Task: structure prediction
Amino acid sequence: MPYPTASPRNRRENSDGPMSSNGMKSASFFGELMQTIAERGRRLLTVAPRQQSDRKRKSTSELCELLLSSHGEASGTAIARDIVARWETFDPAARLGFMTMLLDGFGPDETRLEVAIDAYRGERTPRSLHELHEAAEPRRQELIRRLNLAPNGVAALVSMREALLGMKAEQPALEAVDADFAHLLGSWFNRGFLVLRPINWNTPANILEKVIRYEAVHEIDSWDELRSRLAPEDRRCFAFFHPQLVDDPLIFVEVALMRTTPSAISEVLEEGRELVPAEQATTAVFYSISNCQIGLRGISFGNFLIKQVVEELRRELPRLETFVTLSPVPGFSEWLARERNTGASAVLDEDDRRRLDLLDDAQWSALPEKVETVRPAMMNAAAWYFLKVRNRHGKVADPVARFHLGNGARLVKINVLGDRSARAMSQACGLMVNYLYKPEDIEANHEAFATRGEVATVPALQRLVKGIEARGARSNPVVPAEAPPAERP
Amino acid sequence: MPYPTASPRNRRENSDGPMSSNGMKSASFFGELMQTIAERGRRLLTVAPRQQSDRKRKSTSELCELLLSSHGEASGTAIARDIVARWETFDPAARLGFMTMLLDGFGPDETRLEVAIDAYRGERTPRSLHELHEAAEPRRQELIRRLNLAPNGVAALVSMREALLGMKAEQPALEAVDADFAHLLGSWFNRGFLVLRPINWNTPANILEKVIRYEAVHEIDSWDELRSRLAPEDRRCFAFFHPQLVDDPLIFVEVALMRTTPSAISEVLEEGRELVPAEQATTAVFYSISNCQIGLRGISFGNFLIKQVVEELRRELPRLETFVTLSPVPGFSEWLARERNTGASAVLDEDDRRRLDLLDDAQWSALPEKVETVRPAMMNAAAWYFLKVRNRHGKVADPVARFHLGNGARLVKINVLGDRSARAMSQACGLMVNYLYKPEDIEANHEAFATRGEVATVPALQRLVKGIEARGARSNPVVPAEAPPAERP
Amino acid sequence: MPYPTASPRNRRENSDGPMSSNGMKSASFFGELMQTIAERGRRLLTVAPRQQSDRKRKSTSELCELLLSSHGEASGTAIARDIVARWETFDPAARLGFMTMLLDGFGPDETRLEVAIDAYRGERTPRSLHELHEAAEPRRQELIRRLNLAPNGVAALVSMREALLGMKAEQPALEAVDADFAHLLGSWFNRGFLVLRPINWNTPANILEKVIRYEAVHEIDSWDELRSRLAPEDRRCFAFFHPQLVDDPLIFVEVALMRTTPSAISEVLEEGRELVPAEQATTAVFYSISNCQIGLRGISFGNFLIKQVVEELRRELPRLETFVTLSPVPGFSEWLARERNTGASAVLDEDDRRRLDLLDDAQWSALPEKVETVRPAMMNAAAWYFLKVRNRHGKVADPVARFHLGNGARLVKINVLGDRSARAMSQACGLMVNYLYKPEDIEANHEAFATRGEVATVPALQRLVKGIEARGARSNPVVPAEAPPAERP
Amino acid sequence: MPYPTASPRNRRENSDGPMSSNGMKSASFFGELMQTIAERGRRLLTVAPRQQSDRKRKSTSELCELLLSSHGEASGTAIARDIVARWETFDPAARLGFMTMLLDGFGPDETRLEVAIDAYRGERTPRSLHELHEAAEPRRQELIRRLNLAPNGVAALVSMREALLGMKAEQPALEAVDADFAHLLGSWFNRGFLVLRPINWNTPANILEKVIRYEAVHEIDSWDELRSRLAPEDRRCFAFFHPQLVDDPLIFVEVALMRTTPSAISEVLEEGRELVPAEQATTAVFYSISNCQIGLRGISFGNFLIKQVVEELRRELPRLETFVTLSPVPGFSEWLARERNTGASAVLDEDDRRRLDLLDDAQWSALPEKVETVRPAMMNAAAWYFLKVRNRHGKVADPVARFHLGNGARLVKINVLGDRSARAMSQACGLMVNYLYKPEDIEANHEAFATRGEVATVPALQRLVKGIEARGARSNPVVPAEAPPAERP
Result:
């Protein structure tokens, strides 16, 4: 699922973001209890002016060395704060310079490493191994740990990594720096430290604003729209938070409580629909999952999130029986176009191809007749796409499918024209699918998928695939033209 | 400062500790906001009974392998919980077996490591270095990270390490396992994640109970005594907490607000003393600092704690000018005895020795005349002890002195008979000292101490030392007979 | 300041209002700590079905008698809840019937009252007086007290009174019922029970939504507009809340932190203005005060609110020196029109009248020349209006002036064209004024105003008035045509 | 149930009571969210020194008049604070003087009252009635309302009433003043404003300290004893709080979760008993209910408390089936002694009397044989005592029985030697009884008791009474010698 592109992200003009703190305004999501004292506690000792001005004269690289030195023990918070403050004023060139400095100047101590290797090869003891491991650790790992001493250090490091990810495309060597950021952030954002919170109409506006901004699947274009997703009694939303990134969700999922599994997003988001009394709902529909922090890309929360929300909802509403998604299929159009262009493909037979030709009429979806013509061919194609198509790594090609199947869900339904929005028509010819989260199957599904690549699905879809195989079609890994593996939630 | 020896008194008999959770009783220190949902969120999916019983049949070692495998991604929380639950039922032998298994079975993949070393020596690139570092990482590090998925995972890991520390004396090889625990706990208990909280008479009893239990310097023997240290307006107490170890302080410091720097603990703790209106106090006296979690030994919080408390108190009470400790001198008696026994020592001259002979009279401290006779010799000896005596590592011999001087404090006063308790008489001939925390000097003091071993002190004490040097005494590292370096806060 | 006329827009459509409660959604402004348990605690005992159906067969009047009887002691909560639930389904006719029933059927016990009067006249003792007072108390007072046993009883009673106020115009006899509601609500919303809370961008959306709805002075037409009033560091907003009306503010004031006293609302609300760093502000401008609960009309909070906000701001920002309003003048246009129509008035002389004739040109305010012509005459008229014009009760005629002067503020400046909005042009010819809250003058100002009707103001305005008096003008109480005394905050 | 006598009540030496507030120490039970801002908001405007010293020169009576005057509107908070501050320094004589002043100087305006009576008798309209009711209201009622403006006004008024209750014995005329305090406190402590909170081992120490102090039934003599009543998983405690009396419970009940209904307090409080896993408990035993605020005497909370706790426990532990008390019988010994002394009483026959003579042996309860001899006679007597004995008001004589039966409970069991403590032996010959709270019977039981005086009980006890009636005994109201009706919880 893609991140929101640029735009309203850096709305920090009013200094109410996590980077600042203002006594009267600090009533935060987790309560003043925790925060005010924590933050006040982080304010710094009035250091002697001499030391401050000493530091001002140093280069950033010198400051980083100072932070790693014994000075760092006495004055780590102050030095870390200074480095973070510099970073925040850096232009893109200076930021690239900073990361390059981390790459070149804060790798491991090579001499020590050579000695450690020799020692280990000399005698393979736990001690020599430990020294080898330590010696091989880039010095920037400890530097990153100490930068976390700065007030709001975690937020600063997440934002540094966001910038770093942007640089990697052009500077592949920075991958090594990124690996260190990712390693430490992964350890600190360990599931054990996350907190699940409901998001609703009683949630502070500064959090809700971020939900609007980060929603990546079905855009929220106004506060009224937001209210209609959070306030009604048949809606729920949950997010993971980290104690040190207060007021900034990591990932959230929007849920509709319904009486049946929906086939189209319009059933979920329709204005003026009849509300379902929460205690009468039987089906919880996860219709949108969005990551919020670009700087945490690759650190997976979605898996845990869905399972816990299932558990949370079951507890609140014991009548709920079915936990299911209504999900986009971001890679379908591209694959289908390629398939249609490949004369030789046995996946689509002549009849399928003729039917799918209607897709070239931009109006096809508006004409019920054409839709019905397209439908069987598209079902065939989609079944094959999910069950047989693999990317160059041998994984299921569709990124959203990869995510949910990897979590142990089962693909249960393909919905033609489930989403008529321009984006969905363009990415997926309007297709949406339902993945079912059945608690008692999750582990086995996951295991079969992880170890044998088996896609858990339903007989109807398996039959479609068998029909196609009967024509002689074979599963060939299809490498998406140039696309990077899409981001998973 | 030592940890309580008699160890966790009565720990958890009523199952209200962090290991359990009970709906109605969960109103915790950081508020239900955060905790209840966090904990409920951690409850587990109802897994298929088959899988549960599958796991029951596996050995603990197999479970650990399962947690590291792809299963761990789908069912990590459940597997981690199972392992932690087993650990909690283990007897000491089984616990030793568990740690030995981590040592022998969860080191690095040696084949991969050899390949990585060769690759690195072949071409020293960031990539080959990264692979080397990863390959050298014992597999138990990732195992520990995943154990943290268990409900209350952090508490469980801290308690595992507490047990592990106890095993190390007899099984030095376990040092390698301990290094991995220490590494991860150090990263997770990074200062950036700690929360400073005042402890007072409004604090929940389950926290206060721990203050009584953990107080390591001046014992608290009843709730009335506790109240007298927390409730009066001229008393303060602060602790660090970790968001995942709710209700369990990591370290705390007790503070007395006074009008002068005290020379004896009796001035601080005297019953029936006159209260000082907080806004009239000029001096904040840190008279007790205690670590609480044995399992976090070696991860230093005290340094940060004192500095933040200074900052906190300054903000609340701008009239405060002096921030000073009243500290024990745990190594003095032992050193002095050795010195007195060493005929040749030039540190004590004949006059000193004669005066100090009075110490052999158990009643000396009760007789003002004898005290006055002893005093000048003891001042001489103590000045030398702090300024000149070093341990076998070349560090200041007294562990408490090492802690405060290392934080950038200055030794400002030596108090003969500052503490007449049996323990103080035995450890330190009753000596107490004051270390001064002067914010604008801290960084320079620390630096001089860390890099050049210079002890920041006052001219009066330097003069005493110069007098002794004039007799020909020389600073000789003195190795404490067999004592391990005492625990620092 | 008027209440929002269009009345409770969209109130409660999604059942998340105070009338309902939903476990997962109950994270309220004052924290779950207090609320969830309070509300859960209010859920009712499972009463025997027989009793419930017994109650269903009773008339509302019988239910009210039951609530007042001894049944009320055992089952008060259930009976009160039933009555409130009925009220909520009542149409306007049934609501009028309910209030009429309270008027006719729940006055005092007249027999008892006659006896009590005789007894008191027989012997004027404290006991006979007490009995007289009790006997004269309408029985509906105790009924209202017992209705408060219903879950959300306070909210229900406030909403009942809102309806009652609407009925009074047509049914003046209901004044007696209203007096009893007002008496009890006045006692329960005693200042001693109110809680001051900052409202900012971290405030829950359900509260902010009400700020948008209730803002009565300078309309807020979008969430972006709201954000611009709450989030910037030079803005503040404070509200009073009542512990039993959680999530519903009673009154709020919007504050701008500035460097000077503004002469026009555009200086305050201008888009794209430069932010004032909070700690550099010298002037706190109260530019909007709005009551929120129609059902609490006549119970005054504004007085306390302003003074406490002054105190709160002083504490946060010691550099603030000036606390001043920028206020509308709702009665000015009407008075001025009357004055201009009265040929004989000595308040306006010929020159003034000629200048003010320009006001009849709808475009006058757009033409600087005309504005300058009008200005001196309008200053004259306005000075007289504030200092000399009185209503039929002999009070200062302008309701906003009455409020602020009654609070002890001083009228310090009259701003021609301070507000060019259509409403302000129509009500006040665009006039706005500044009232100064100088803490050390408040008590004396209030006293002079309350006892001698003296308007605290500045010499410049007094000189204008003296000039007019020199022409022979006299202060004549002017009765506003038909207007009820406008609502004070 | 009696209040604790004098003793450790006024433990306010350290100024951490509700009367003071200290920034760093204000972390209160309901969270800083609510309190800190509320209290800070109550701090007062810096009034002009002139006004302060003006007030200092006034008598208390003048200050009270000032508070009632228009001054009270502008400066009510300051004046109220001054009066409360004076009260707190008053010695008993001055306090009596203050109350006498309220009696004599702040009754109603008699002239106005005479006019109002005449007007009402002239024309009995709602308006003339309203004026009569207002005119009959003692001026001190409004004074008390305005005193509530003082910071911590409610706490001050509750404590004033506590003092007042102490004066009433000697000054019966103060009853009139007390009626006004009681009226307003009753309105403000209306059930609708109370908050139910669990009390447990996570509760702040300052609250727990009050539980120790206020426990009136089975004394808590140490923090260990307290812990044993709160921490184990088969114990619960709940209290009512008022938002303006933060940190001070109003009433609390202690609950034991058990497998059967206990016959003796030793079964409940026995040290070393086996814990009952909470989810296995079938019986909730209310074994102690204590009022906390003498100043709220006569304002009944106990009724609501028990019912809500029943509801709360049912929700947490659906397996609970039985809700029952284990209660003292404070009036039994006295009544029995009188009965034994009355030769003519038919309640006790010869056999009974002979058996009961054993009670005169102080050791009877230690000798099983004697106990068995006494038992049948005591059962007879007790059954009669509960079912037939009435006080001079015609009510059930035993105060605890009156309370529970009035709440709708049923007397289900009489336990000979249920409590062997000195107090219970002296008050009740060791008797304890069980009252059963069966939700579906409560309303009917209450109704039968309230209107017809019927005691809900069990056939076994009714049979005993019938046996006694068969002997010719008749129910005669027995007036307790001189005792005032004992306090009900």
In short: The two ends of chain C are 6 Å apart (CA to CA).
